[in-house]
Structure formats: C-alpha cells, structure tokens
Amino acid sequence: MAVPLRISLAPLLGALTTGAALAEDLFLAPSTLPEVLTATRLQQAPAAVPGSVSVLDSALIRASGARSLPELLRLVPGMLVVPQNGNSTTVNYHGSSANQARRLQVLVDGRSVYRAGFAQVDWNDIPVAIEDIERIEVFRGPNTVSYGANALMAVINILTRAPRDSHGTRLKATQGERGISDWYASHGHGWQGGDLRLSLSGQQDDGFDHKADGSDFRDGQRLSRLNLRVSQELDASQSLDWQLALKEGSNQIDNHYQPVFPIAAQPWEQDGDSDVRARDYAGSLRWNLDLDPSHSLYVQGNLQQWERLRQWRACEGQLAFSPELGQLWALSPQYVEQLGQNLQTGNFMPPAGTSEQVALATRVLQQAFATLNPSQGTLAHSCGLINEDVRESRFDLEIQDTLSLSDNLRLVSGLRYQHDRADSDVYLDGRRSRDTWSLFSQFEWHIDSHWLLQGGAMLEDDNATSPSLSPRLALNYLITPAHGLRVVYSEAVRSPDMFENHADWQYPVRDLHPAALGQSQARYFASAHGPGNLEQERMRSRELGYNGRFADLGLSLDLKLFYDEIDNLISEPLKVYDFMPSNDNRLHLKGAEGELDWRLGLQDRLRLGYAYIEFDATHRIDRRLTPRHSGSAGWLRDWGHDWSSSLFYYGADSLNQYRFERVDLRLAKRLRLGSGQLELAGVLQQRLDDEPLGWPNNNYDERRVFWISAGLEL
Question: Where is the TonB-dependent receptor plug domain (predicted)?
Fold first, then answer.
C-alpha cells in the first residue's frame, strides 16, 4: 500500500507548487468544489472544514457490496467495527468501549438514532436500507458544538436520496451463503411541486457458525423495513419534507443462563432461546423557509420509539428467590459469594461478618437446608418467566437559523429541545425520563482570501447533569479554495445515560412453578443500582490537518495529526454481578490519519485510508480495544461494455485483541432492458486471518462467503 503512495507524492507536490496548477485552483469557482454539511451545519468546501470529514458517496457505497451500515464504515480511517454477534455490531472511533457505541452521534437525515436510555446505536436495526442512502458524511473528531452531548468522538450523518432523485421503480434481490436473503423495492413519483419515495426492504442471514467451544452459534437475524419520504414545495420560499420509517424483526439469542445454585434434574426444561423482537417507529417533519438569498431557517420535529421485546424462561434453585438473600446481596455481594462457596462445599455455617450479615446469612442457610435434597446434594428448584422488555421513546424539536451577514461572514444559530423516556421493569424498575435544552451558535469569517476563522459553542442543560458548554475554535489557511491547512481546538462532553447513572437492575420472575419459598412471583437475589451522581465525560481535542483537491489529477487528500484527552471516563463493564460505573478513568489518544481518493481517468478510482494511534488508558478494557494500525484500500474499475469491478482490503492489527484482515471482490454487469437496466453482481469476501471476529465466539466454518444480487431499475 505504501508503494503507490510514494509514487503519487511527486505529481501531488508538483501540482501544488507549480504556477499553472496554482493559478487554475485559485480561479476555480467555489461552486465546482464538492461540499459537506456535517461539520458546522453550513455547506462548506472540504478545505474550509474545521476538522476531518470522510464522505462515502453513492458510487462507493454500491461498489463496496456492503449489506449493512457497519460494513460501509470500515472505509473510514480510525473507525472500528466489532460484531458482538451475528445480529449486533458495535462501531467506535479510535477505540474505547467495544460493548456499546457510547461516544458517537449517529444521524439519519438529521434525526438522531442514538438511544439515550442505554447509550446504544442498534446498527443492524436502523430502519434505513443501504439502497436508499445517497451519501454518508463522517466527521472524525468531537463535534458536541454542532450536535450536542454524545457527539464526543465522531458524528456519522446518513443522508438518504431526495425524492426528486428517486423517480421510477427499483427492485433488488440478494441470495448467498450463510443464509443471506435480502430484498428491496422502491418507487418514486413526482407531481407539481412535490415528490415521493416509498421503499420496502428486508434482510436475513444466519450469523456466525460456531462458538469457541465448537457448538452452534444461534445469532441470526431477520428484519423488514418501510421508508416513506415526501417533499412538497409550498411556494417559492417554503417547502415541507416529512418522513416515516418502520422496522420489524427478530434477533436470535441463546438462553445461556446457568443456575447459580446446584439443582436437581429439571422436569421443566428452560427455554432454549430468548430471541429479541425488535420494532422501531420514526417520523419527522421539517419546514424550510428561505427569507431571502442570505437568510434561511428551518424547524424540524422528530418522534421515535424503540422496542426490544424479550421474554424467556429459566430454572433456578429456590434459594435464589429468598428476600433475605437479596437483602444480604444489597449489603455485600462479596459476602454472598463467600456464602455460596460455602454451600457448594456443603458448609452450612455463615461466614464471618457484621451482626446483620450473620443474622441474614443464618436465615438463608435455614432456607437452604429446608429445600435440600440430602440424597442428591441439590436444592429444590423453580422455573419462571423473566420479562426483559425495553421501550424507549424520544421527541425532539429543533429550530435553526442560517444568516449571511456579509460576503465574508456567515452565522448559524439554533435551539433544540429533546425529551427521552425509557421503560424497563428489569433495568430501571419502571420508567425514567430526561429533558434536554440546547442552544448553539457558530460563525464562519473569511478574514481575507486565505485566512478563515471559525468558532462556536453549544450550551446544554438537562435534568440529570449540570449544564455544559462545548466550544470550538479553528483557523484555516486556504492556500487556494481547494487546498487548506487547519488548526483546531475543541471541547466536547458525553452525558451518562439513564442506565449508567440511574439503573435499578433487578429481575422480577413470575409464574414460578412450583412456588419458590411459598411465592409464585419473586425477585432474583442479585441486583444493581446506579450511583446517581455520575458526571459528564469531558474531552479536549487538538488537531493539525491538511485537505486538498487536485482537479487535474482527480485526487482528494486529507491528513491530520491529533491529540485527544478524555477525562471522567466511564469505562467499567455494566454487569449485574459487577456494576460499578465511575468517573475514575481517563483515555489519552494521539496519532495520525490519512485518506486518499484518486480518480485515475474515467475508468479507475483508488481509495486509501489509514490510522495510526498511540494511547494511554487507565482502564484495562480501554487499553485492549484500540488498534495501533488500521486501514483500508479500494480499487474501483470500469472495464467498459457495462462491466465493472471493485476490490477492497480491510485490516487492523487488533480488533478487541484479534487481528483482522479481509479482501472483498465485487464483479458486476449491467444489461440494457428497453428504458431500464438490470445489474447482476457477485460479491466474494475472503478472510486473510485465522482469528475470531472481535470476540471468541464469533467464528465461521469457512473463511469465505459469496452472494449474488440482481437489481432492476425502471
């Protein structure tokens, strides 16, 4: 990968310094430069952006052959994609927790899909089809100043195709190994002043094949989606854009519960699975108003609901439902562990402890003895139903005003209100909610033809943490409109989610049969409670960078050096047996990233991305989750006669301590059918390593997978 890069440096530097190329770029009309929106909420040329932005356009998305959003993000430097299992994936920028996407803000057409109740982004369940995506902009760095808390490390903005660009009918079917079976259908229609796009899609696969012990891994997924987007011009200055998105599906999950207490052979078998039924609903309405060519505003409202429904049956020793054991656990989980070890060895004496602990332990031991089967040395057991249903909802309303005060000065300001609610009997013992108010403003000042100063801040206040102010200041030196150097300082925050801070984690069990200690409904003894006083994680980021576009060469290049400090970090794993979240951790990151997109004539396109990261982390989990080297390389080729191919390489020296290398090959042929066309494509993925994918249980029987697709456009 280094060889073509060295070859390209000479013409690249020559084009930047020669008078002819410089003159051409100096007089290049700004309107001919590509623009990005995600960085500051203002449309800007990449060289003027106060940070690094990766853009995955529709051609690159199609050529990748990706079936899911996380697979697309492997093309972004520094972005780490770690599957939890076959139907759940974590995406993180620069590492940190591999269990949740706690520190990313993810938007779909301006609507956040970050679940504030449990700090999650359910990538496999986002109700948007790959085929509906026009482009993805990834701001690689903190951007709380634009998008609020949780945009701590990066912002991923998924932009779908506008209805006016979606007229006609599109059909696609995909079949392949590992149970791959996807479909997509959409229709776009226009009328006087309005356009509509309706799409239906589905996805299915079997997930990973086997666990670390060789047993089958039950982690497949099945989902279906509906998306409706309508745009309507009200008059020359006003328009409405509204959307409706629905998703329904199921994610397989093994019931891996193992009894804590030794119990006899079970006349009632516990459920072999505990699948999650996932249902998402989202709606949005946006009113756009152009007051004059230099002044515009919009008002956008969003409604969303996430449902993760899971009920399963398990069997446990009746002692696990003892109220006294629950009280003892609340006093000291370590004491309960010692008591359990005594029981395992047949010791019915209470461990040494406080008078209250010994008194409760004595009562528990009496209950254990009363349910003991002396001949087998096991305890009487009961089987019951556990309801882990989780429902979350959000309403948010945002007003944004964009004003050009002069030819050299632009200002964007806004106000946002967001109400989040989460319902869970297991994790929250009912319902919790959060109200957040945000006020933001940013400016862009062209001091002269070369110097560009940008700054802004967001003030946020919610009813769970103290108010926070997130500023950013950036200075860009535009060598030409297409080439810029930048220096950026920014601060960002992440608010602890409801679960981290206010967990009331306990397992009510109903329909116990036989009754446990005289109870048909009871609570499992283990529980956990959030501290309630967690503070926001805080990040300070410094960046030096360069962005350039060489029109004659068809080459775009972005380079950056960074140093990020995250303090008050909440790194502890959240487990009912070890629930101790705190702000006692920190993570410092420094390194370099580069991205190159080179269109070599009309037939070839080369894309390279690389990240080098050095880190200093106080928590063991953060220390093991950041690879030092990661990157991707892609070659897209149009062979003529409607044949095309793409070849991608993805690699990381460590994804959760496992090496990852893969090559993807896509070959496609387009056939003309009257006024329409049919595309036939095949995708082959070949793993070059012999490691599990991210976690020990994520294994395939074969290191390669193949699927084919047929797409019809009319």
Answer: 48-154
Q: Is 336 contained in some domain? A: no
Q: What does the pLDDT read at residue 21?
A: 38
Angle formed by the axes of helices 323-331 and 333-344, nearest 10°: 130
CB 483 within 8 Å of CB 450: no
Token pair recorded at residue 563: 């140093």
Cα 97 to Cα 71: distance, rounded to the nearest angstrom: 19
Residue 635, domain CATH: 2.40.170.20
For residue 438, the model assigns a pLDDT of 96
Contacts of 692 (CB under 8 A, 6+ apart): 212, 658, 698, 699
What's at 377, amino acid-wise? G
In the structure encoding, which two tokens stand for residue 1, read together?
A: 């990968």
* Nearest in space to 516 (alpha carbons), one of 385, 387, 382, 384: 382
| Alpha carbon distance 224, 203 (integer Å) | 6
Q: How far apart are CA 365 and CA 362, in angstroms?
A: 5
The confidence score (pLDDT) of residue 6 equals 37
- d(CA 307, CA 387) in angstroms, rounded, equals 13
User: What is residue 39's predicted lDDT score, i.e. its pLDDT?
Assistant: 86
Residue 284 CA to residue 286 CA, distance in Å, equals 7
Three-class secondary structure of residue 678 per DSSP: strand
Rounded Cα distance, 685 and 67, in Å? 12
pLDDT along the chain (714 residues), means of 10: 37 38 36 75 93 95 95 95 89 73 87 85 90 96 89 93 95 97 97 96 95 91 96 95 96 82 61 84 96 95 95 88 92 88 79 90 87 75 91 96 95 96 94 94 96 96 89 97 97 91 93 88 92 93 97 95 94 86 92 96 95 90 82 97 97 89 97 92 96 92 96 94
Backbone angles phi, psi at 636, to 5 degrees: -110, 135
Nearest alpha carbon to residue 346 among 379, 377, 322, 320: 377
Q: Judge whether 241 lies within some domain.
A: yes
Exposure class string for 560-597: b at 16+ Cβ within 10 A, else e: bebebbbebbbbbebebeebebbbebbbebebbbbbbb
The rounded distance, in Å, linking the Cα atoms of 171 and 621 is 44
Contacts 24+ apart (CB under 8 A), 292-297: 294/403, 294/404, 295/401, 295/402, 295/403, 295/404, 296/401, 296/402, 297/399, 297/400, 297/401, 297/402
Which residues are CB-contacts of 375 (< 8 A; sequence separation ≥ 6)?
A: none
- The one-character DSSP state at 702 is S
42 Rama sector, left if φ>0, alpha if ψ -120 to 50, beta otherwise: beta
Question: What are the structure tokens assigned to 442, written together?
Answer: 């940013």
The reported pLDDT for the residue numbered 46 is 93
Dihedral of CA atoms 12, 561, 93, 451 in degrees, nearest 10, equals -80
Question: Which pLDDT does position 5 carry in this prediction?
Answer: 36
DSSP 531-574: -S-PPPEEEEEEEEEEEEEETTTTEEEEEEEEEEEEEEE--S--
**Main-chain dihedrals φ then ψ at residue 366, nearest 5 degrees:** -65, -40
- Are 441 and 500 within one domain? yes
Q: Is residue 483 part of a domain?
A: yes
Q: Give the number of domains in the chain.
A: 2
Q: Indicate the pairing of strand 658-673 with strand 643-655.
A: antiparallel
For 367: left if phi > 0, alpha if psi spans -120 to 50, otherwise beta; the answer is alpha
| Structure-block tokens of residue 209 | 């094949």
Domain match, 23 and 38 both: no
pTM of the model: 0.91
